[in-house]
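Thread: Newbie trying to understand structure tokens

Hi all, I'm a second-year student working on a class project, and my supervisor (Dr. K.) asked me to get a predicted structure for one chain before our next meeting. I've only ever worked with sequences, so writing a 3D structure as a token string is new to me. If someone could post the tokens and maybe explain what I'm looking at, I'd be very grateful. Here's the chain:
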Amino acid sequence: MIINQKFFVSGFSSLIHLAPNMDTLVAMGSFASFSWSVYVLFMMTKEHAGKFAMTDFYFESAGMILTLITVGKMLEARSKGRTTDALKSLMKLAPKTATIIKDGNEITVPIEQVQKGNIFVVKPGENIPVDGVIIEGVTAVNESALTGESIPVDKAEGDIISAATVNQSGYIKCEATRVGQDTTLSQIIKMVSDAAATKAPVAKIADKVCGVFVPSVILIAVIVVIAWLILGKSFGVALSYGIAVLVISCPCALGLATPVAVMVGNGVGAKNGILFKTAVSLEETGKIKIAALDKTGTITKGEPEVTDIIPAEKFTEDELIDCAYSLEAKSEHPLAKAIVKFAKDKNFMLHDVKDFKALPGNGLKAMLSDDEIELTGGSVKFISEKFSVNEKIINDAENLASNGKTPLLFVEGKKVLGIIAVADVIKDESSRAIKELQEMGIKVVMLTGDNERTAKSIGNLAGVDEVIAGVLPDGKENVIRELQTEGKVAMVGDGINDAPALTRADIGIAIGAGTDIAIDAADVVLMKSDLTDVPTAVRLSRATLKNIHQNLFWAFIYNVIGIPLAAGLYGLKLDPMFGAAAMSLSSFCVVTNALRLNLFRK
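---
Reply by user tm_fold:
Sure, no problem. This is what the structure looks like when written as tokens:
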């Protein structure tokens, strides 16, 4: 009772303010049991020793009430997750320093000192410190921190760059256009913060019921005492009936109904690689009507792969791959890495090249060391401008592009060898997961920052109900807001750019292989990065919610039967030992029912 004094402080304080809660019933049941037992104990040591028996003690009830309720609250507390880590992780992304040009010299200054209009430089491999525009140099910028797209974007003079993105290749000189709180990254941080602040808390079913249940039980206990006094019983006997009502109706089972089911549901989820951060997220996931899925890294693998090899007439696949491998081996571009990986897996031999030159936004050039033959590779536009490309090759390239693939043409000397197409391919399980969600009555929407043609191609292959393309981070958050007018929305994503949408959605689900920020911003984390875990999470949530409703039903049935018994309406005087046993039994039934969730299978 001393350890759990918070029940008495909260319970009696709320009673004084005429707003009794669960703590009130717990405090009254325990305090009344203890007080009456102390009275009986002192009476037994005086002249009334024969008037009372050991069975008139309620000490064990006073302790058991508090213990069981504390266990329930502890289980609930353990299921709660962190709420502020997403913002902290986003803030860590912001670069701490910038290299600006002052009086013709490059100097490193804290990011806070960078002002709009300052000229700053970014070397290969460095993070871009603030939003700006390139005034000198060409490069490839990895914008996955903001757009979620894995393929770097080629940038030249006049192009816009954003803070927290990574300069991958060239040395660039830029003019700062947005600094401090105005940068794209800062705006994303603000969106996550605002979305978190406006998310409505879901009240627990038991708490709502207790608003009526608690005052009712207190009133019943008072009525029972008065009724037995009117019937001529002594005050001690009448009080014992009233205490019995408080003891047996103490909402131990009611208090355990939700947290125990939540704990078991969380455990089952963890076994299947599904982590629910809070009890609310476990309850709410099963209520979603719309699932919004990010494309890159969620529906697709997030890494480009070779999908098609189309040699030109009179040339073989081996000749085409030989040329592409030798040329792309010296490039750091993700498309090049896809070709190199493919060639290595097929055990192709790498030929030495010299005079390697990358042409940002166009392609690559190099000379074969042994034969002094020039190799060229790049986009259809670039190769068509330099060489004679027949109509069939151009048509094949256009067909590949219309299917969301990136066609690359390769030339040896002046001979066009053919096309190698590279694309971010759909995960093996994506179509199955989307079909399962649809069979559960959930509408599936794909969100992506990619262009509409590529997005629709991927969407058709995956089988989604709707495709929304060309969406930036703030756009994704707005789309989620609009979808919420149709019902509860779950957002599934893996990138930093998904953080505002994950937070705005009723349920944010992060793919485990994604960024820490996405994982922190989400309510549910899929550790195996398996999209089929999304429908599994929904089914587990529904099973848990059903179990909670069953637990609450049995808890109420127990009270409906137990309270009249304790009040003596059945012509029996309830021994406090049996009252305590009955109370324990109700909790045992609730816990046992919750353990049935362990039978859940993916």
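A couple of things are worth pointing out once you decode it. Residues 17 and 180 are 48 Å apart (CA to CA). The radius of gyration is 34 Å. Feel free to ask follow-ups in this thread.
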